[in-house]
Specification:
Elements (H helix, E strand, L loop, with lengths): L21 H4 L6 H26 L12 E5 L12 E5 L38 H7 L18 H8 L10 H6 L2
Antiparallel strand pairs: 1-2
Length: 180
């Protein structure tokens, strides 16, 4: 086999090479001791992983059995009409399922104000003049393209319906200024 330079023979798989003997083709195998050592390290690593998973799956707090029962003597408060008999009641705690949804809905109630609201100051009432009404008048919005029935509205009709009294309808720039 050539040392430093590569040749065409280096590209041929070892099983198909004719210039090599079986001894050259044989791969060096590890001895029995290193095989056992590697297997033991692998087994310990896998045990460590599985023990960690088993511990994670086990519950942290396991409740005690329901053998803790308590007996209580009960006498009802309403003792009329023969209902006043004493009873002995066995009290036990029922194991609660941690995955069960909540039985009661907690409704958040908004907090009340810290103090009274600040007073709203109004100017003295007065009647609106015609000029005030004209200033507050908002023109109705007209569609840029069509009316409700779907007919196309000409530009001069749109500008006339706007109510702003535009005289010149020659430019398209007036359309952008006139429409809502």
């Amino acid at each position: 086999m050539s040392g430093a330079c590569s040749s065409q023979a280096d590209l041929v798989p070892l099983a198909n090479r004719t210039d090599m003997t079986d001894q050259d083709r044989a791969m060096e195998r590890p001895d029995e001791e290193s095989i056992n050592e590697t297997a033991e390290r692998t087994r310990l690593a896998l045990e460590k992983i599985t023990q960690g998973k088993i511990k994670a799956a086990q519950p942290k707090h396991v409740p005690k059995a329901n053998s803790d029962s308590e007996y209580v003597r009960y006498t009802p408060a309403n003792q009329s009409a023969g209902e006043g008999k004493q009873r002995i009641i066995k009290m036990t705690t029922v194991q609660e399922d941690p995955l069960e949804p909540a039985r009661f809905k907690h409704k958040k109630i908004p907090r009340g104000a810290d103090g009274p609201p600040p007073p709203v100051m109004h100017s003295p009432p007065r009647a609106a003049t015609a000029q005030d009404q004209k200033d507050w008048m908002i023109p109705p919005c007209i569609s840029n393209w069509k009316n409700n029935k779907g007919y196309t509205i000409p530009l001069d009709k749109r500008l006339a319906a706007d109510g702003r009294g535009l005289q010149d309808v020659s430019g398209v720039t007036l359309l952008a200024a006139a429409l809502c």
